[in-house]
């Protein structure tokens, strides 16, 4: 049968040297740089590794090229200044440029601000050459001044305006201002700064803003803003809208060409009902004064609650039958079935209070709160339905902070809409519910290019503490890493559970269709910040949809859907199990300093908090697939400034593999074409065993040297593989009955792991293609993830390999990969002197073991234009994601399945089975 059966080490001498994988080995890399503890999230690591570091060839690698100016005033060393990498606090360092828009409502102030961080990407030699060769210009950058920026979402209670002003002032958010000429450059403190603001407070507090911050408020119409915000979010964010019925949340795919018309119902203090026909085309058709302010205001009077969440929490334990008059109360326990009313239907909200001789204090606050919540939610649902009916609209989007991500509120509104419309109209909710107006105000800045952004330009990240909610510190203010870590440590000291950034609405279902009492959920509502299902929006206008996808609309990257709870549980257990080992590696990769340990600890806590949060509410961050979880882990590492946890492992494996490459190439060259092709594919599959993300594989790395494991893995390769289209592929490559097929013009090889995987697997395959006259583009990660090779690392590996192989050398020269080597050896440096087809390297735009082909780098998109073969390698890229992806060109998917459960589920096979799937162009 296929693959490796059982223990792959059967028959391997147990006394072999195990040094290669000694976990305790000291980091090979010497870092000189200071670690400066600033930056609120993942990619803000601009101050790390100032001194650069050495790669295996002794060349200096610069992780960030254009370094932003730092404000070093009042800089302070944190902790022990004798440490090798002491943490330095820069209190006066702020985000590079910030822009701010406000929605100052009756209850809450919503703040959307933009920070433009320096473009972190390095224009290294490889990139320059790739640009030249693939004809990529900086053209589309110019249209997007917001390149490399992020949108942050923050809210404060309007009654705590001062805290909001302090926040703005501490982050200097008012300095960027409206002057759109400055979008692209360092803005000086602006004397005549103007901030866009909407909501009543824009009028009411204009003078205060002038006085306190010296800025003028440019007032934007509230309805204009609501609509602009809703349209932008619905078009630009993939998982923005969702339905919520009987506790079940489902994201809705919005077709951009079929968005209008819709009804927008914004439930703030009051309620606005707007018919939206297009961008800037709308009409406020109705509204009601019974809204969020009514619930909160009346609720506060009746229950003496001190804050909104407390009131909402009470409702979860309430039973409204003690106060509401039900149909059954009037009909002596019977249904009024003739008109379709069950005995439990509310006939009159608070109706029981008239007949009783009870006073307010005789009612439980829990019951009052629930009664009130249902009264208001049903009422809004009903009025919304009537307006939808008036204009023949089927889709109603609900926004505003009254909803607060609260499952029961959404269920109740959905129930009302469904009930009254007899299922004709659909209630949908927005993840950025309360931020519509603020986003709209932000949109009203001219020339930021935001309206041109599309879904694939936006990446949402969930750093700890985002979104920030002012007032009580629920999360760390978006400030420096040190502060963030201290904040988390405090939580732990207090024995409080850390609230993941996007946080906890009560889980699960009400399951009761809205007319019954909510089941007691026991748990308390999480802190206010927790209820915002939004992260930080990274705007990356250089990302593109992979042009070779057969049908981008139908494309779903994730093979494993985690909405299946069993599946979710399984993967959560797996990832939790990996955590201790990963933290060890990460800490070691940063020299094992106290600072690194502290960050490692914080990372572990943060990632566990994410897992706990998602376990409770899987859809909290949008639709959840396995690829998202694996990426979240990498992002979380970066957030705590672990830039490359597997750095030394990768180096060791590269070196060991390069040492045996010449022998392998010699062996291959003695084979006939057919044997060689088979051996090459076997080699790729066998070498994919070097995967530090798989528990099973890591366990046996301790049992042998790299080369031994590689040999063993290859010896166990037996066809047929579990998925085996090799014969088809062979026919395409070699032809049949003496007919020679035309070679591929260009092949994109999505490479996976460092070491044997790339050196002994993918490079020899690339060489074969080159030899046949096919251009080869190696597609590698932009950022490290596990032991995956990155685009920055590949050229050096190729250069080493090229020393032993003419084919690779000529192709690499033709592809401009060996510029250094050529200069050093003072060979003829002019390009094009080689007759070989080129070998090139492009980055894929991501930093995860998986790849979502809807968002790839412009380099890759450009390289794809002339490609007629795509080879995806590895479990992450070919199985977890893209297993079902269809391409316009031929595709070959190669992977070893290194997880028992996945093997069973996906290919009805066993661990170590292999997949060789060949698909002709569609
Ligand atoms: N922390 C909170 N404090 C006060 N009200 C809140 C809070 N969270 C949610 N709400 C609800 O949100 C409503 C305000 O919604 P919002 O969309 O911000 O409207 P507005 O612009 O009128 O302030 C409040 O009336 C209340 O029902
Ligand atoms: C993270 C990975 C997708 C990486 O695999 P690769 O793409 O390198 O083949 C894979 O190791 C994985 O799914 N690991 C988690 C499951 C486990 O420990 O079995
Ligand atoms: Mn990998």
TrEMBL record:
Q: Alphabetically list the UniProt keywords.
A: ATP-binding, Coenzyme A biosynthesis, Hydrolase, Kinase, Manganese, Metal-binding, Nickel, Nucleotide-binding, Transferase
Q: Enumerate the NCBIfam families for this protein.
A: panK_eukar
Official protein name in the record: Pantothenate kinase 2
Catalytic function, reaction form? (R)-pantothenate + ATP = (R)-4'-phosphopantothenate + ADP + H(+); (R)-4'-phosphopantetheine sulfonate + H2O = (R)-pantetheine sulfonate + phosphate; (R)-4'-phosphopantothenate + H2O = (R)-pantothenate + phosphate; (R)-4'-phosphopantetheine + H2O = (R)-pantetheine + phosphate
The cofactors named for this UniProt entry are:
Mn(2+); Ni(2+)
Could you tell me the superkingdom of the organism this chain comes from?
A: Eukaryota
Task: Name one molecular function that GO assigns to this entry.
Answer: ATP binding
Role, per record: Catalyzes the phosphorylation of pantothenate the first step in CoA biosynthesis. May play a role in the physiological regulation of the intracellular CoA concentration. Functionally redudant with PANK1. The phosphatase activity shows preference for normal or oxidatively damaged intermediates of 4'-phosphopantetheine, which provides strong indirect evidence that the phosphatase activity pre-empts damage in the CoA pathway. Hydrolyzing excess 4'-phosphopantetheine could constitute a directed overflow mechanism to prevent its oxidation to the S-sulfonate, sulfonate, or other forms.
What biological-process terms (Gene Ontology) are attached? Answer: coenzyme A biosynthetic process
Q: Does the keyword Cell inner membrane apply?
A: no
Which pathway does this polypeptide act in? Cofactor biosynthesis; coenzyme A biosynthesis; CoA from (R)-pantothenate: step 1/5
- E.C. numbers: 2.7.1.33
Extract the ranges annotated as region (Disordered): 39-70
Compositional bias of type Polar residues: which residue ranges?
Answer: 41-51
Question: Quick one: a GO cellular component term?
Answer: cytosol
Report if keyword Hydrolase is assigned: yes
Q: Return the CDD domains for the record.
A: ASKHA_NBD_PanK-II_Pank4
The organism of origin for this protein: Gossypium tomentosum
All copies of domain Damage-control phosphatase ARMT1-like metal-binding, residue ranges: 597-906
Please name the InterPro entries in this protein's record.
ARMT-1-like_metal-bd_sf, ARMT1-like_metal-bd, At2g17340_3_helix_bundle, ATPase_NBD, PanK_long, Type_II_PanK
């Amino acid at each position: 049968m296929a693959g490796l059966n059982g223990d792959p080490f059967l028959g391997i001498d147990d006394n072999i040297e195990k040094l290669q994988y000694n976990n305790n080995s000291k980091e090979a890399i010497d870092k000189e740089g200071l670690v400066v503890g600033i930056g609120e999230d993942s990619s803000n690591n601009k101050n790390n590794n100032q001194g650069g570091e050495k790669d295996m060839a002794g060349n200096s690698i610069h992780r960030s090229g254009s370094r932003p100016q730092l404000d070093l005033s009042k800089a302070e060393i944190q902790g022990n200044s004798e440490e090798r990498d002491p943490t330095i606090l820069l209190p006066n360092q702020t985000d590079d440029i910030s822009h701010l828009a406000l929605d100052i409502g009756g209850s809450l102030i919503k703040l959307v601000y933009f920070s433009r961080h320096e473009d972190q990407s390095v224009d290294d030699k490889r990139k320059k050459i790739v640009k030249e060769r693939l004809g990529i210009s900086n053209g589309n950058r110019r249209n997007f001044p917001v390149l490399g920026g992020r949108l942050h979402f923050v809210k404060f209670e309007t009654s705590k305006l001062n805290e909001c002003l302090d926040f703005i002032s501490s982050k200097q958010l008012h300095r960027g201002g409206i002057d759109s000429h400055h979008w692209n450059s360092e803005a000086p403190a602006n004397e005549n700064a103007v901030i866009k603001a909407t909501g009543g407070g824009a009028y009411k507090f204009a003078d205060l803003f002038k006085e306190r911050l010296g800025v003028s408020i440019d007032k934007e119409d509230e309805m204009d803003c609501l609509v602009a915000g809703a349209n932008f979010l619905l078009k630009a964010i993939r998982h923005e809208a969702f339905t919520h019925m009987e506790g079940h949340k489902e994201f809705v795919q919005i077709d951009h060409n079929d968005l209008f018309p819709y009804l927008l119902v914004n439930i703030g203090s009051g309620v606005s009902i707007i018919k939206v026909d297009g961008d800037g085309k709308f009409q406020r058709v109705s509204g009601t004064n019974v809204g969020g302010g009514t619930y909160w205001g009346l609720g506060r009077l009746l229950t003496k609650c001190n804050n909104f969440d407390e009131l909402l929490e009470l409702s979860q334990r309430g039973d409204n039958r003690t106060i509401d008059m039900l149909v059954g109360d009037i009909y002596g326990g019977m249904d009024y079935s003739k008109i379709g009313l069950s005995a439990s239907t509310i006939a009159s909200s608070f109706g029981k209070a008239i007949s009783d001789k009870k006073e307010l204090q005789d009612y439980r606050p829990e019951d009052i709160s629930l009664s009130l919540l249902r009264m208001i939610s049903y009422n809004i649902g009903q009025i919304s339905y009537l307006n939808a009916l008036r204009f023949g609209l089927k889709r109603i989007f609900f926004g505003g902070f009254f909803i607060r991500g609260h499952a029961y509120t959404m269920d109740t509104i959905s129930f009302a809409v469904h009930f009254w419309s007899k299922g004709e109209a659909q209630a949908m909710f927005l993840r950025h519910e309360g931020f519509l107006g603020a986003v709209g105000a932000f949109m009203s800045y001219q020339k930021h290019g935001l309206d041109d952004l599309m879904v694939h330009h936006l990446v949402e990240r969930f750093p700890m503490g985002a979104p920030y909610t002012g007032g009580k510190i629920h999360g760390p203010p978006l400030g420096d890493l040190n502060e963030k870590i201290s904040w988390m440590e405090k939580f732990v000291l207090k024995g409080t559970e850390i609230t993941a950034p996007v946080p906890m609405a009560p889980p699960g279902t009400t399951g009761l269709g809205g007319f019954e009492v909510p089941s007691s959920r026991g748990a308390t509502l999480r802190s206010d910040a927790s209820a915002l299902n939004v992260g930080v929006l990274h705007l990356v206008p250089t990302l593109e949809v992979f042009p070779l996808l057969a049908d981008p609309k139908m494309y779903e990257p994730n093979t494993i859907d985690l909405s299946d709870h069993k599946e979710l549980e399984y993967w959560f257990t797996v990832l939790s199990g990996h955590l201790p080992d990963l933290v060890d590696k990460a800490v070691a990769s940063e020299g094992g300093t106290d600072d690194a340990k502290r960050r490692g600890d914080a990372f572990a806590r943060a990632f566990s908090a994410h897992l706990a949060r998602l376990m409770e509410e899987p859809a909290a961050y949008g639709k959840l697939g396995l690829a998202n979880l694996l990426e979240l882990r990498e992002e979380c590492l970066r957030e705590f400034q672990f830039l490359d946890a597997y750095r030394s492992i990768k180096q060791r494996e590269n070196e060991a593999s390069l040492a045996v490459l010449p022998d392998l190439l010699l062996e291959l060259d003695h084979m006939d074409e057919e044997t060689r092709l088979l051996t090459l594919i076997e080699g790729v599959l066998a070498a994919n065993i070097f995967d530090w993300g798989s528990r099973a594989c890591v366990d046996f790395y301790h049992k042998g040297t790299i080369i031994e494991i590689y040999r063993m893995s290859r010896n166990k390769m037996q066809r047929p593989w579990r998925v085996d289209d090799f014969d088809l592929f062979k026919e395409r490559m070699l032809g049949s009955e003496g007919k020679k097929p035309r070679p591929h013009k260009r092949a994109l090889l999505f490479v996976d792991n460092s070491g044997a995987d790339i050196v002994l697997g993918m490079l020899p395959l690339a060489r074969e293609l080159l030899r046949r006259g096919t251009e080869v583009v190696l597609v590698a990660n932009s950022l490290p993830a596990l032991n995956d090779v990155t685009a920055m690392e590949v050229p050096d590996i190729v250069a080493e390999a090229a020393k032993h192989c003419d084919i690779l050398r000529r192709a690499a020269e033709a592809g401009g990969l060996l510029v250094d080597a050529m200069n050093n050896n003072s060979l003829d440096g002019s390009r094009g002197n080689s007759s070989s087809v080129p070998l090139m390297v492009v980055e894929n735009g991501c930093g995860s073991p998986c790849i979502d082909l809807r968002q790839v780098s412009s380099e890759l998109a450009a390289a794809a234009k002339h490609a007629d073969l795509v080879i995806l390698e590895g479990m992450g890229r070919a199985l977890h994601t893209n297993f079902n992806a269809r391409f316009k060109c031929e595709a070959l998917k190669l992977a070893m399945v290194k997880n028992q459960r996945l093997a069973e589920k996906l290919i009805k096979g066993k661990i170590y089975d292999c997949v060789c799937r060949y698909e002709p162009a569609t």
